[in-house]
Amino acid sequence: MNQTVRKWQGQWTWVLLGGALALLCGHAAAQISTIDAPPQSSDHAPRYTLSGSVVNSITGEPLRRAVVQVYGNVSATGFSDAEGHFEFSGVAGGTAYVSARKPGFFGEQELSQRARGVLSQTSVQVGPDSSAVVVRLVPESTITGRVTGDGGPAETIPVTVFEARIVNGLKTWEQRGAASTDEDGSFRIAELMPGTYYVEFGPYWRWMVAVEGAKAREWGYARTFYPGAPDPESARGLALAAGQVAETDLALKREPFYQVSGTISSALAVQGVSLQFLHPSGETDSFPLGYNVETGKFQTRVMAGTYTLRARGFAEGGTSMADFPLTVNGDVSGIHLLLGPPASIPVSLTMKSVSGRDNAATRGGPTLPLTVHLMARSVSLTGGVAGSILESEGKPPRYFFRRIEPGRYSLEGFPSPPWYVASAQSGGIDLLRDYLVVAPGAQPEPIEIVMRDDSATLSGSISGDTAAAGGMVLLIPERAPRRVQVRPAGTSFEFAGLPPGGYSMLAVEHADDIEYLNPEAMAPYLSQAKSVTLQPSQTTSIALELTRVGP
Amino acid sequence: MRRMHWMALILLAGLVAQGQSRPVSPAGYSISGTVVSAQGEQPLPHMQVMVGHAEAQGALQAVVSGDDGRFQFTGLPAGKYWLAAEGIGFARQNFDEHEGFFTGIVVGPNIDSAGLVFRVRPDCSIAGSVTDDLNDPVRQAQVMLFRRGVVNGKQGTTQQTGAVTDAAGHYRFSHLKPGTYFVAVSTQPWYAQNQQATTQVTEQVAAQVAAPGSSDVGRGEERLATEERPAPELDVTYPVTFYSGTTETADATPLDLKPGDRVTADLTLTPVPAVRLRVDYSGLNAESASATLVRRLFDSQEQVAAGATQIGNKEVELSGVAPGRYELTVSTFGKTSRQWTQTVDVAGDTRVSARRGSGPVAVSGVVKTDGGMVIPARAQVTLRSIVSVDVVSAPIAASGEFQFDESSMKPGKYEVQVLNFRDALVSSVTAANGKVDNQSVEITGAGAVRLVVTVSQRLGNVDGIARHDGKPVAGAMVVLAPRDLTATTRFRRDQSDSDGSFSLRGALPGKYTVVAIENGWDVEWLNPAVMKTYLKNGIDIEVTPQGKYKVEAKVQ
C-alpha cells in the first residue's frame, strides 16, 4: 500500500493511490482509458511534486473544486482549491497525464475528439524541475428560451437542438440536446460544445378523447425551427461560442387539426399499418392513428398543409405500401389507400473484359466483382437512410433491387479492382451522374450496368504540412462528380480500379469539414485542384501539395 | 359521480358511440354557466370547457369561455354529463372535483342546468434551486415532492411525484393542487467515488452479483478491494435533505399552498462521509446474492441508490450509503431464489449477517365462492402490503387452490384481494398461522400460512338522493359505512350529482349506514372516531346479496 496523505493549505486533503483509479462518471473521464497499475516503484526512487491550476479556458478564471486526475507512472485524484490550484506530492518521474473535470465544462481533449476524432491529452514531464501545469476547461454553451402560444406560455413543447455535421462527405443532422418547456414556456439545454446549432420546437398536439361526431376541435403547434422556419434548411443556426448562453424566444401559432380518414386495403392480410405525413421539405410527421384491422378503416388527424400520405402495411410476406397526395384544409374523408408491393427494379450486368478475364457474372460464377446498393439518403431531420442491396435469383442469375419505396436514390457500387463501373443507366438517366427518382406506384426502368476491367491506378505523394491529423486526398471524376474517392493523406496514397478519364485532385487538411459528395459544395475548391487524365490500364503517380480549404 | 376506471371507459365509450345513431331532438337541452377562479371568484375567459356523457370519457362538445367567463352547451339529450375545464394555469378539472369524484350535471325535462358557477382552482407550483456546500448548482438531482392529506380516508404523507434538476440546479413542480407539501432531494455529489477502486462496478441500484462458478472473480476482487479505498474527500454522499435544510422528516418545513400559490423552496446539500454496509450472506445457503436498501420517507419508501460490490465469498458490500435506518433486502440466488428482509441502523461502516429468521414464508390457501360461481381462468389472489408498496399475486387453480411464490413473500401485513374475478370481491378471510383483521392478514414469518378466502359476486347497489330540507344537494360526500367501522374494504363512496343523486355500487352483503356530508371532503371517513359522529343522522340499511336499494340521505 502506497498511500500518502497530506494537508494542503489546510483546506483540501490529497490522497495518492498506487494503482489505477477509475473515475466512473463525468465527461472527461469517459474518454480516458484507464492505465494499468504499474509495478510498484522501490521506495528509493526519486519522488517529485506535480502542481498546477485549473482555469476557465475563456475567462482565465481559476476553477475551484474540479476533480484533477493524474495518471501515468502513478495515479492520483484530488480537488483544485479555492484558487484553482492543485498539488500532488510523491509523484514518480517520467511522463504523466493530467486531466480535470467539473460539471459545466468540457476538457479540451473532448472538444478535439468531437471535432477531429482525435484524442489529445495534456502530458507533463515530471522531474526535478517540472513546471506548473495549467489545465484549461472549456465552459459549456447553453440555449435557453421561452415559448409562447396563443394567449400565454406554451407548456410541454418538445425542444430539440441539432447540429449539422458532415459525415463521409454528406451533411447529416445530429441531436445534441432535448428538453421540454415548463409552465412558463421556458426551457434550458446546456452541456453544448461550441458550434452552430438549430433549435426545433414541436410538433405538439393536444387531443381530447372525443366521441365520434363530437363538436370538439383539436389543435396543435406545427414543427418550427428557430426563428420560425418550417424546416432546418430555412432556419437560422445559432453560432455559440464557448460559455455563451443564447436566448431563443419563439411565438408559436396554434393551428387546428383536421380529421383524415378512409380505408386501407391490401392483397396481403396486414397485421398492422403505419401512416406518415411527408412534407415537401422531406420532413415527416406521424400522429396517433386509429385503425381497425377487420374493416381497414383508419382515422388520424393532421394540421393544414400539403403532404404525401404514406401508408405501410406490415404482413408476414413483407411490407406493402401506398402513397397518396393530400392537401388538408378541412376534414378529409373517404381516402382509399391500396397497399401494393414496393417497386422491384431488374438489373442487367455486362462485364467487358479487355484482358480476357472470366466474365463471372454472365457465366453465373460464384462471385460478382462488386457490391451494389441503391441508397436513399434524406438530409431532413426526420427522414432516414434507406437502401437496397442487389439480390440475385436463378441460374444464370438475374439481378434485382427489391422493396424500393418511392424516393430519390443514388446507385453505389464498390467493384473489386481492376473492375470498374463504366456506365450505369436507367431509361436514359446516367446513374453515375444523376439520382434515380422512383415515383409512387411507378415501375422504374431496368438498370443497365456495364463493367470493364481496364482500370487505371493512380498513386502519389503529398508535400506540405502532412502532419496535420485528419488530412485527406480527394479524387473527383469529371464525368461523375458525386463519385468522389477519398484516401487518408499520409505521405503517399494510392487509388486503384479507377475508370479512365479526367479527374480533379485535392489534398485537404480536414475532409470532415467539406461536403465532398455534394458537387455544389465542392465547386469553390475545384480551382485549387490539380487535373489529371488517366488512360485505360494506365498506372501513374502524381505529386500533390496540401491545400488549406474549408472553414 | 365517480371518475371511471380506464377499462370501463373504453367499454362505455363504445356503447355511447352506438347510442349516437339514435335520433336526437334537435333542440335538446343545454348546460350553461360561468367559469370563475376558486381564488377570488373572478370570471375566467379563454378556458376550454368540455362536456361528455357521465359514463364515458370522450368529450361531446368543447367550447372556450367568453370574456365574461360564460360558456354554453346546447343540443344535449336528456341525461347525466361530466363537465371539465382547463386553461393556462389551470390543470384539467371536473366540476366540483374531489379525490376522483365530481358532481355530474343532469339535464332533462324540468331540470335547470343553467347558470352553473364552475369554480376552478388555479394551479400551485413549487420551484427552487439545489446548490451544494460551495453554492454551485447541483445538476441531475432527484427532487421528491410529498403531499400530506387524506387519501382513501387516511391521513398520511406520501410521495406525489419527482423531478430532476437542470444544469442550473433548478427544479419545478407545476399544476399542483392546493395542499400541504414537503420537498426532499436525493442525489450523490458529482465527484463522489464510493466504490472500491478496482472493481469497476458502475453505480447501480442493486448489483446482480455473479452467476455460479464466478467465485474466482469474487476472491480476486476481495484482495484488491481491501487495498484500494477511494480518497476520503471523494468517498462522500448527500443524505436525503428536506426543505428547508434538514435530514429528518420530523424537522421538514411544510409548504402550505393556497390556490394559485407559487412558492420557492431552495435547498443546499452538504456532503457527509459515506459509509459501507457489508452484508454477510454465508448463513443463507445461497450461491450468490444481491442486496438493496430501502428507506422510509414519511409514509413512502424509497430505494437507495448504492453501489454494490461482491466482496469475496458470500459477502456483498453497499457503498456510498448515508448514515441512517434502512430496510435491507437480500435476494439470494441458487437452486431457489429468495428474499430476506431486515432493518439495519447504519452509523459508520457496518457489517451485518443476513438473518435466516427474516426469511421467506410459505403462503397458500383456497378460494371459496358464494353461489357456486366458477373460478375464472385468469383469476389471481393478491396480497397488497399495508405499509409498503409491495404487491404479490398468485394464480387461482380451478379447484380454488393458490400458492404464493415463497421467494417473493416477505413478512408483513397485507390486504387480501382478488383480480380478474369478474365483479367479485373478497368477503371474508381466515388464516391458519396468520393473524386476520377484516380482510388483511399479518404474516409473521413463523411457519407456513394457510388462507381461506371467500369471494362474493353477489354484491348490492345502493342508489339515492342526497337532500337537505327536502331539496337535492349537489356535491355532498356520500359514504356507505359498514357496521364494523374497522372493515376498511367494505366502505363505498360517491359525490352527489346536480340532482342530488348518488350511486354506491358493489357493496358486500351486510349491515351499513348511508351518510351524506356537505363539504365533507376533509373528513377522515376511515377514522372510526370521526365517522361515529355522523352515524346517528345516517340511514341504516342491510344489503342482501344482489340487493338494490333506493334511499333518501339527509345531508349533514
Structural features, described:
The complex is a heterodimer of chains A (551) and B (556). By secondary structure, chain A is mainly beta. Chain A has 5 domains: 3-138, Sandwich (Immunoglobulin-like); 141-251, Immunoglobulin-like (Sandwich), CATH 2.60.40; 261-339, Immunoglobulin-like (Sandwich), CATH 2.60.40; 343-452, no CATH class; 456-547, Immunoglobulin-like, CATH 2.60.40.1120. In chain A, the strands form 9 sheets. In chain A, strands 41, 42, 43, 44, 45, 46 and 47 form a 7-stranded mixed sheet that branches. In chain A, strands 1-2-5-4-7-9 form a 6-stranded antiparallel sheet. The longest helix of chain A is centred in the first third of the chain and has 9 residues, at 108-116. Chain B folds into 5 domains: 6-120, Sandwich (Immunoglobulin-like); 124-189 and 239-268, Carboxypeptidase-like, regulatory domain (Immunoglobulin-like); 199-229 and 274-353, Sandwich (Immunoglobulin-like), CATH 2.60.40; 363-456, Immunoglobulin-like (Sandwich), CATH 2.60.40; 460-554, Immunoglobulin-like (Sandwich). Chain B has 3 helices and 44 strands. Chain A binds chain B through residues 1, 12-15, 17, 19-26, 64-65, 67, 77-79, 103-104, 140, 142, 151-153, 155, 179, 182-183, 188, 190-191, 208-217, and chain B through 13, 16-17, 20, 46, 50, 52-53, 56-62, 88-89, 123, 125, 134, 136-137, 139, 166-168, 170, 172, 174-175, 190-191, 193, 195, 197-198, 200, 202-203, 227-228, 230-234.
| Rg result of chain A | 30 Å
CATH superfamily of the largest domain in chain B: Immunoglobulins
Strand proportion of chain B, as a percent range, falls in over 45%
The count of β-strands of chain A is: 47
Number of domains of chain A: 5
Residues in β-strands, percent of chain A? over 45%
* Chain-averaged pLDDT of chain A: 81
**How far from one another are the termini of chain A?**
53 Å
Tell me the number of strands of chain B: 44
Our count of helices of chain B gives 3
Shape estimate of chain B:
flat
Q: What is the CATH-assigned architecture of the largest domain in chain B? A: Sandwich
User: What fraction, in percent, of the residue positions of chain A are helical?
Assistant: under 10%
CATH architecture heading of the largest domain in chain A? Sandwich
